[in-house]
Design goal:
Length: 718
């Protein structure tokens, strides 16, 4: 292949002295996205990407496969309030999911259809909160990468807007008071009250009464002293108490505050948990006697469930109801306390090396009663029940070969069946899934999920390795149309549960954040090395893929081991870790990564920051850097700066490409755009690893062969 000709990107002599470090930043000018020079350069990058995409041999074949393997219908458990059931549905031709209301006689009606109000496809249903009685529902719509995010209130039976919009409620929490005439919610301070360009959250908890102008909604909690706090709101079943979690960004700890609702507009909060002092997550739920059920990792990194009086601050007095299982981190729990049940139950979901278990316990004693049967060896998520008192459990189940299906557990009979509003999915018998453990460089065993063709394994295959490893988020063996398509083509799809995630509890997260983030990257490169060493693949057949924090992972991994990979795909990545705090929501993530304002922490960041480890003259793998034109979470400058640096530095013939998506979001677009992105990722990865939908088994390739087009390809055929 001929070396690509890249658009010229001016390198300037910008050098910044931070905390005694001299840091070169030759592409800082690309941070000004509305500058005419940046727009012109980006437009030429768009042309370069389209020219290369036109040469990818099987794009239409991949598009057809993604469409074929995508799932449609109802895949999330319902919210049941009063006699109404609220579900979301997305059919084959739907660009966005719709909110459906189902009454007691199973009559269905569309309550919210984003496409009806905005045919441009840019508006999506983000969140919805039915009142306890089910008569009203607060709905939040979001427009792709627009900072505004309003709440409107609908009549659940007619669909008419009865209140709103309530502005500046992006990423809110909302809790209805009994009666459905008021709710608490979280909104941002008006822009005119802030310094221009201030990216901090500046959120306040407010009380809204139906029919009142939002500008009169009183603030009941929050102030300027806590500019980056996230708030979670829960009201007790009897409506007498409000519990609130307060977290400083994504920090691994939070406070809990409790207030009596005798005067909803003038709450007196009592801090029940000081998360900073105990360095733990604590999620409160109200018990029927108004005491608290606490789900926590305090003195239990894999999670335990405790009970405590509402205002008891001392955690030494908490009573353990369900103890920690060090081999199975706690996922979720839910109370069923309908008076028709023989006894109140506590349902507990755990993940043992990524695979779910679901057990029922006596709520009073925590004693295990029974195991809830699951449809297979897979993942049960999104536990839901009726509000305020539940007698059924709804959950979503899937595994690597089975798309998500909603199931209902009848607590009175102990039976599980598919929910009538959801179509049960059948397993794909051509996909095999297994969990293995590989050794990291320090000897720690790490879980790796492998999705492979069910047919007999016959030597190295093109492999797509995925990872994330930040914020304590947990990797699971979930169904993915992208993974399924890759396996259908004869490849191996792998997901590495590296440190920095939450697969083995809070200690696993701590081992890969802050000063230990390099461990996350080393674990990922160790996964790739294991796949090569065990004969699953070769460096010339190995592509890596990550989104957001996973984009940071794969770009950093490739900077440290460019010889190990044929292709790298990073979607919405973090790349410039010296300046990440200045872009999007980066300023709220310093507890995860560190801050460039402190010498020691800046040194952590410089150890692995991908942008600062691009080395001229290195033969880098093929790179696809994807992202939204406007990214309100990570900021678009990571993609542009990393692209320019790699194009300048690489000595390889493999291309460095930038795929920009206008009118899109950081992690959520309309269906056609999501499928188009998945298509391009697979076509790109397939080209540079030798995977073909038609030839099925490409021969093993050397590093020098990684970009060669496989033989026998006829574009456009399925």
């Amino acid at each position: 292949m001929a070396r690509p000709i890249y658009p010229n990107a001016r390198r300037n002599g910008t050098v910044e002295n931070l905390c005694g470090f001299s840091i070169s930043d030759p592409y800082r000018w690309l941070e000004v996205s509305d500058d005419a020079r940046v727009r012109a350069w980006a437009a030429r990058q768009d042309e370069l990407f389209l020219a290369h995409r036109a040469e990818w041999p099987e794009t239409e074949n991949w598009r057809f496969m993604i469409e074929k393997l995508s799932t449609f219908g109802v895949s999330d458990p319902p919210l049941v309030r009063g006699s109404l059931m609220f579900i979301t549905e997305q059919l084959r031709d739907d660009e966005q999911r719709r909110l459906i209301v189902v009454d007691g006689t199973r009559n269905r009606r569309v309550l919210v259809d984003p496409m009806a109000s905005d045919p441009s496809r840019q508006t999506r249903l983000h969140a919805w909160w039915p009142s306890r009685e089910g008569e009203r529902v607060a709905v939040q719509m979001e427009v792709a990468e627009q900072p505004a995010s309003d709440i409107v209130v609908l009549d659940a039976r007619t669909g008419e807007v009865t209140d709103g919009p309530l502005p500046r409620a992006r990423n809110t929490s909302l809790a209805w008071l009994p009666g459905g005439d008021a709710f608490y919610y979280v909104s941002r301070v008006p822009d005119e009250e802030l310094t221009p360009g201030d990216q901090r959250l500046h959120r306040r908890v407010r009380l809204h009464r139906i029919g009142s102008p939002p500008e009169t909604d009183p603030v009941v909690f929050g102030g300027a002293e806590a500019p980056d706090c996230y708030y979670g709101l829960t009201i007790s079943a009897d409506g007498r108490h409000l519990a609130m979690t307060v977290a400083d960004g994504p920090a691994p700890h939070n406070d809990v505050w409790i207030a009596e609702l005798t005067e909803p507009q003038a709450l007196r909060f009592v801090k029940t948990v000081d998360g900073r002092s105990i360095r733990a997550h604590v999620l409160p739920r109200f018990l029927p006697d108004d005491n608290l059920l606490l789900v926590t990792d305090y003195q239990a990194p894999c999670g335990r469930i405790c009970t405590a009086p509402r205002h008891h601050v001392d955690p030494s007095a908490w009573r353990t109801l369900v103890p920690e299982d060090t081999q199975a981190p706690l996922d979720d729990c839910l109370i069923l306390d309908d008076p028709t049940l023989p006894q109140p139950l506590l349902l507990v979901a755990r993940a043992r090396h990524g695979v779910s278990t679901l057990t029922a316990h006596d709520l009073a004693s925590g004693r295990p009663l029974t195991t809830v049967p699951l449809p297979g060896v897979g993942v049960a998520t999104s536990l839901q029940t009726e509000v305020p008192h539940g007698r059924h459990l709804w959950f979503s189940y899937c595994d690597a070969a089975t798309p998500a299906t909603v199931y209902r557990y009848h607590a009175a009979t102990g039976t599980v069946e598919p929910e009538a509003t959801s179509t049960a999915s059948k397993p794909d018998s051509t996909i095999s899934s297994r969990t293995v453990r590989y050794p990291a460089g320090d000897g720690t065993e790490i879980t790796l999920f492998l999705f492979t063709p069910a047919e007999e394994f016959d030597g190295p295959r093109p492999t797509l390795l995925y990872g994330y490893g930040s914020f304590g988020l947990t990797m699971r063996p979930l169904y993915s149309p992208m993974a399924a398509a890759w396996v259908h083509a004869g490849g191996i799809y792998a997901a590495a549960c590296v440190r920095g995630g939450g697969e083995e509890g809070q200690q696993w997260h701590d081992a890969g954040r802050g000063p230990h983030k390099q461990q996350t990257i080393s674990d990922f490169n160790d996964a790739a090395s294991w796949l090569v060493r065990t004969g699953h693949t070769t460096p010339g057949q190995l592509a890596i893929y990550g989104m957001s924090g996973g984009g940071l992972l794969v770009t950093a991994a490739a900077m440290q081991r460019p010889d190990l990979y044929a292709a790298v795909i990073a979607d919405g990545p973090l790349c410039d870790m010296v300046r990440y705090e200045r872009f999007g929501l980066g300023g709220t993530w310093t507890d995860e990564f560190g801050t460039a304002t402190q010498p020691e922490q800046l040194q952590w960041l410089l150890t692995y920051s991908p942008y600062h480890h691009v080395t001229p003259g290195t033969a880098y793998p093929a790179f696809l850097l994807a992202g939204a034109v406007t990214d309100l979470q990570t900021g678009e400058a990571h993609v542009t700066k990393m692209c320019a640096a790699l194009q300048h530095a690489t000595s390889s013939d493999h291309p460095v490409l930038m795929r920009r998506e206008p009118d899109s979001a950081h992690a959520g677009s309309c269906a056609s755009k999501e499928r188009a992105l998945a298509t391009d990722i697979l076509a790109f990865a397939g080209k540079y690893t030798g995977l073909s939908l038609e030839t099925r088994h490409a021969p093993p390739m050397t590093d020098n062969d990684a970009g060669r087009q496989p033989q026998g390809i006829r574009p456009g055929r399925a």
